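2 proteins. here.
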Amino acid sequence: MFQSLIFILILRVFCVLAQSDENCETLPFQLHLIKEEYDELGRLQRTCDGEVTVNKCEGFCSSQVQPSVITPTGFLKECYCCRESFLKDTLVTLSHCYDPDGVRLTSNEMATMDLRLKEPTECKCFKCGDFSR
């Protein structure tokens, strides 16, 4: 009985500490993108690449584990994950394009490629595995 009481107290202290450490935020992230473009017959037209900076969600969310006589494992788990709460369309430009032979393209319309990405503008903690939002 005494060990169970100590275990419950430790869990409660952990839950309070975890809640104070919650820190889910949007951070810039540098990404190397490569995109291939094909014609209507499926032949490679060009390959473009470049370094782009986009936002990502990163951080800690409070989660907790509590003893439970109802669950089969004996513990009730509430897990939260840092995820995007709002996305925006972002236009990025890949500035290095090459033909199928690896020769760099220099003509105005083929030398760069614009891509539309969705990136997070806001992040927050969501219940893990909840994709219904």
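next one coming up
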Amino acid sequence: MPSKDKYDVVGQNEKNAKDANSSNSSIPKDEVKLQQKISLLNGVTVIVGSIIGSGIFVSPKGVLEGAGSVGLSIIVWVGCGLFSMVGAYCYAELGTSITRSGADYAYIFEAFGPFLAFLRLWVECMIVRPCSQAIVAMTFSYYIIEPLFPDCEQPDNAIRLLAAICILFLTFINCADVKWATRVQDIFTYAKVGALILIIITGFVQLGRGEHENFHNPFEHTETNIGKIAMAFYSGLFAYNGWNYLNFVIEELKDPYKNLPKAIWISIIMVMTVYTLANIAYFTTVTRVEILSGSAVAVMFSQRLYGVMWWIMPIFVSLSTFGGVNGILFTTSRLFYVGGREGHMPQVLSYVSVKRLTPMPACIFMGILSLFYLLSTDMYALINYVGFVNWLAIGMSIVVLLYFRKTRPDMKRPIKVNLFWPILYVAMTVFLVALPFYASPTETTYGVIMICTGIPVYIIFIAWENKPKSLTNIIDKTTLFLQKVLVIMPEENVISITEEMKHEHA
């Protein structure tokens, strides 16, 4: 939740909505002024902390299923890192040319107007964030329940129930107190780093002991179906998701022209190295067939090597993914705030609790959506949902770079990438977006349908200015009802009330 001292001005919600609706070319530039507090080191930790999460523990199976062989799966992991690096390099030009928080939402708004920007926001809020949260919560369940079922498959209902409990509990934490949420994030961040370091060190020890049978014929069983290989890249890219998060807070980065590209290069090279070494470590101990037979690859790894202490790995991973769920909930409140500020999300979602000073409506909404995605019968289908819509949106952001090169040739560009890289990235994105229609048509069709659901929402609630009084009354009454039930108000009103209460007590 944005605080009073972090922003110079927080305009009235109703005024912002009207300003956003009347703007045809760019996002208003006078509502928010962020303080530049993020250093180069902070920028690296933002990217690394955003990328490393549940993906490295859940994606190895999906990558291997699509690649078929050990050798090609390692190549896919490296390829996904290089692909992310190219995208991040292009984002460095966008981030230093359009120095506004919001990343792809802001870039698409600037280039193509409010409609496509709204669809990007809709996709992020309605699909990417809650779907990712459901995936991370299910990964938490897989690992935390593994010690109870060491020799058999975990019951699916138990996994989903535990994931739901995790989401509900952290939704309560984020609604109750911002300090509780940040403390959870601080504590559990160390777990994922500790788990990966332990895996990599153990892998080096295994290689030193001559445990490299799985690398003797690395390309045996290599998949030749190009559609399945694309699905392997989806799983790998899911693990790299988050490389563009620093652009969301570019206004807060010190010396962005210098530090943004440095932070990108350092962090993505670091993550790519860690991911590749972790997967090599897995293959020193766990066979291809074993990885394909279960989701909890890190647990199988620990069971082979750590003896009676094997349970330490599922605990590490569970702590990591638990913190990941909390992180998604915590950061999404800013996204809803920006959407409400620009008039592209219901105003009530940018309101805060009067008593708790937390973004309660946004957290509750995220929790409910995430529970809905838990109804999916296949976690890897969820990854395909996220992959399709997310890479479509990010690819469109890179198109913005090409569009501005043509329409705004004199635009200030402190970082100017060679056109080969954005063209290459767009071409690869087209490949990643188009092939799933052939390889995974059902999940892809669902993804398209979910994107299209934003069109009538935009027409009715944003583009349609002269709404009937009956409809505006329904919206107003619904907002008022939620305000009364949840005891929430616009942030500036809450701050005023809080200051008055402090003055009275004084």
